[in-house]
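Run log // design_07
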């Protein structure tokens, strides 16, 4: 099976390409507008250009949509992909959506719950992308939509690297009631295993299936923050007052984000700047939303990575990165002095 992986150079996409390559039954092609994947057949493609996508899809048995980025990249990109699949007669799409489509819902949430785009541009774009996938199914295509929670694992900057740096700086810890929401963590390998299963899932033409993805043993955010802090030695773990958290997110966050964007436009590294704390995370950390993933367990035969194993992997990765960064900084400082 030849499979085009859009967003193949990203965190999930690159891991997926490697697992497809090692599957023994799939030949992945990494599709991205950025760098090529080492050891993987790659094609540079503008994922918002339906004509370019149709050319890239020629001869493909399926496509996996891992595209991230702006609202346009997510929503209009999904629309362009559907048009391209119809043109190229590619019969199957596996689409990576997000738990963001559930908006402000709380409690145990199954896949039939109504979508809610009210959380902002990201949720709205993800809901729009899913509507384009439904249009492809109505046109006779086959779709599996996956709605993961927070994808973590070694190499996860969003949910491991950034969180660890917040903990190191004393900006994060036990948040009290503000951190009592469910984390809905899901290991990157479990997401990729779900994609592999979805690619081989027997389905009639015109059918769309949707699956939540969150490990059943994923903890509440407070528990994760404390566990990760202990694993990387960011102790003592502080109790963070609600006012401190709001000041960090609402007052310090936007200027830091603007500074990072300005440095990026200038082509300069932003590593010296503290991470911005997006205000949207505050709502996420206190929301009592629990993704019910029993359908994925049953239909995709998932075997979840245990939380403790994933935590050990993530801590080891972060400490290795931290050690490498420290050694690199020392080497750069040393090069400024004559020997």
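design_07 sequence
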């Amino acid at each position: 099976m030849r499979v085009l992986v859009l967003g193949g150079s990203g965190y999930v996409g690159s891991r997926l390409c490697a697992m497809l390559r090692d599957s023994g039954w799939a030949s992945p092609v990494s599709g991205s507008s950025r760098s090529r994947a080492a050891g993987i057949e790659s094609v540079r493609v503008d994922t918002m250009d339906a004509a370019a996508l149709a050319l890239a899809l020629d001869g493909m048995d399926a496509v996996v949509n891992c595209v991230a980025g702006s609202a346009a990249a997510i929503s209009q990109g999904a629309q362009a992909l559907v048009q391209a699949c119809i043109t190229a007669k590619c019969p199957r799409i596996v689409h990576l959506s997000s738990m963001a489509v559930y908006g402000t819902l709380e409690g145990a949430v199954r896949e039939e719950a109504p979508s809610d785009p009210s959380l902002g541009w990201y949720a709205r774009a993800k809901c729009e992308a899913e509507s384009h996938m439904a249009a492809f199914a109505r046109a006779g295509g086959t779709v599996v939509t996956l709605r993961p929670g927070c994808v973590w694992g070694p190499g996860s900057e969003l949910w491991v690297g950034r969180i660890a740096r917040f903990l190191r700086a004393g900006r994060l810890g036990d948040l009290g009631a503000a951190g009592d929401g469910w984390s809905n963590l899901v290991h990157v390998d479990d997401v990729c295993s779900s994609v592999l299963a979805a690619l081989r899932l027997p389905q009639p033409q015109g059918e769309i299936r949707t699956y939540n993805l969150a490990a059943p043993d994923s903890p509440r955010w407070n528990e994760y923050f404390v566990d990760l802090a202990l694993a990387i030695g960011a102790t003592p773990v502080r109790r963070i007052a609600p006012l401190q958290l709001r000041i960090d997110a609402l007052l310090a966050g936007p200027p830091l984000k603007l500074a990072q964007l300005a440095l990026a436009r200038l082509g300069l590294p932003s590593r010296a700047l503290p991470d911005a704390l997006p205000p949207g995370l505050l709502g996420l950390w206190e929301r009592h939303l629990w993704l019910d993933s029993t359908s994925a367990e049953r239909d995709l035969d998932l075997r979840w990575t245990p939380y403790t194993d994933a935590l050990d992997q993530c801590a080891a990765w972060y400490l290795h990165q931290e050690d490498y960064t420290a050694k690199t900084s020392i080497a750069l400082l040393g090069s400024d002095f004559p020997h």
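The chain has a mean pLDDT of 92.
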